[in-house]
Design a protein that fits this description.
This protein is mostly helical and about 110 residues long. It contains four helices and no strands. Helices cover about 80% and strands about 0% of the residues.
Length: about 110
């Protein structure tokens, strides 16, 4: 392999990228944060469910309410993030399969001849 490409690979492997988000460890996660910031999830269903949660939490102390609310929000954010990342992976897989499709069709046609 070209020594310049090898040198570039070594350089990139030694560098720690800075994604400007404390908990982002990949460009895909940065893409999620940008998307989530630009497209916040807020609808009537979410408001209704949080109201139901608040009705239950009223029986607890303020400290308990804060604790439960924090865990519930962390769960929601984790699910949203994972769904976004999985969606990107599925989309990339679909693109890959569709991109390979013409080659596969051509191989099938050639094998029938």
């Amino acid at each position: 392999m070209n020594r310049y490409i090898e040198n570039l690979k070594v350089f990139l492997a030694e560098q720690t990228p800075c994604y400007c988000y404390d908990d982002a460890h990949s460009l895909l996660e940065v893409l999620y944060y940008c998307y989530a910031t630009a497209n916040p999830v807020d609808n009537a269903t979410i408001h209704f469910q949080f109201q139901k949660l608040n009705d239950i939490l009223r029986r607890l102390t303020r400290k308990e309410i804060d604790s439960v609310f924090s865990v519930a929000c962390d769960l929601c954010i984790s699910h949203e993030r994972q769904a976004f990342l999985d969606g990107i992976h599925v989309g990339m897989r679909l693109f890959s399969e569709l991109y390979e499709l013409p080659t596969q069709v051509q191989e099938i046609a050639t094998s029938r001849e």
